[in-house]
Design brief:
Number of strands of chain B: 3
Largest interface: A-B, 46 and 45 residues
Structural class of chain B: mainly alpha
CATH class of the largest domain in chain B: Alpha Beta
Order of helices and strands of chain B: HHHHEHEEH
CATH topology of the largest domain in chain B: Alpha-Beta Plaits
Shape of chain A: elongated
Number of domains of chain A: 1
Number of helices of chain A: 3
Oligomer: heterodimer
Helix content of chain A: over 70%
Shape of chain B: elongated
Strand order of the largest sheet of chain B: 1-3-2
Distance between the termini of chain A: 59 Å
Strand content of chain B: 5-15%
């Protein structure tokens, strides 16, 4: 009985996680430039992958698997903002212009670190 | 700060990551943990450690709450039919009150996870953080909410 409850819970988590990953992909297709696309990937994408880890932890019933799923979850959430930030920064320094709708009046490109 | 306890926790993390529960592997993990702690011995001895741990936990909780919130918001945005109309992206200059590198790093990472904001870069003098926002029509409000929320909490942890 309790095993089934956990299995349904894990199934639900995987569906929601898959949905977030799908919406992250839709975001990459629909959003206008790299900066706005990074929003979709870094938030919805990480959420999707993170929920998959939680689903594994819920359904495995094995301490070593649960702990490693948890470790994967933590590392994912530690590295994701850094990579999103690095991609945005690299493209800004490389001279990739934000989409024409973007308000960049506050930005002083000379002030950025090389 | 209890070195013995931390070294044992680090050794257990080592066992978890290497997925090898033999005693020999535990011993190896413990030795590596001791070496790592020895390297940072000056930095981790601070007063009021446990009080700060409470702020750290509050920060972690806020982090996950905001991430869920922002993931849902972005997901809704990308399936809105006339998305371009709702999208007013902009780059905002956020004046930093926090000073040290670790505080700025933490704040930048947290900002990336809040709804509609993404850290782009820090100015040369470490006084301004440039943030890309999905809806930048109200800059003052956004700057205020970050300064009152994350930045204040980070200052409490590191003060």
């Amino acid at each position: 009985m309790i095993v089934q409850v956990f299995q349904y819970l894990a199934g639900g988590l995987m569906i929601v996680g898959g949905l977030f990953s799908l919406l992250a992909a839709v975001g990459i297709l629909r959003l206008p430039d790299l900066y706005t696309r990074m929003h979709a990937v870094s938030k919805a994408g990480t959420m999707g992958a993170g929920l998959m880890f939680v689903a594994i932890a819920v359904v495995s019933f094995e301490v070593s698997v649960i702990l490693r799923a948890f470790a994967g979850f933590v590392f994912l959430f530690l590295t994701m903002p850094v990579s999103a930030h690095l991609l945005a920064r690299a493209s800004l320094l490389a001279g990739y212009k934000p989409s024409s709708a973007t308000d960049i009046t506050d930005l002083d490109i000379k002030e950025l670190e090389e | 700060m209890n070195f013995a306890l931390v070294s044992v926790i680090l050794a257990l993390i080592w066992v978890v990551i290497t997925a090898n529960t033999s005693e020999l592997n535990l011993l190896l993990g413990w030795l590596i943990a001791l070496a790592a702690l020895w390297l940072v011995r000056d930095q981790i001895i601070t007063p009021r450690f446990f009080q700060k741990m409470r702020w750290v936990l509050a920060l972690i909780f806020l982090f996950f709450f905001e991430l869920g919130h922002s993931a849902i918001k972005v997901a809704i945005l990308v399936i809105t039919p006339n998305m371009k109309k709702h999208l007013k992206p902009g780059i905002i200059a956020f004046p930093l009150s926090v000073k040290s590198d670790i505080e700025i790093t933490l704040l930048a990472n947290l900002i990336t996870l809040t709804p509609g904001t993404l850290s782009v870069d820090v100015s040369k003098d470490h006084k301004i953080l440039y943030i890309h926002a999905l809806s930048a029509d109200n800059k003052e409000e956004l700057i205020n909410s970050i300064a009152q929320g994350f930045e204040k909490k980070i200052m409490k942890v590191f003060s």
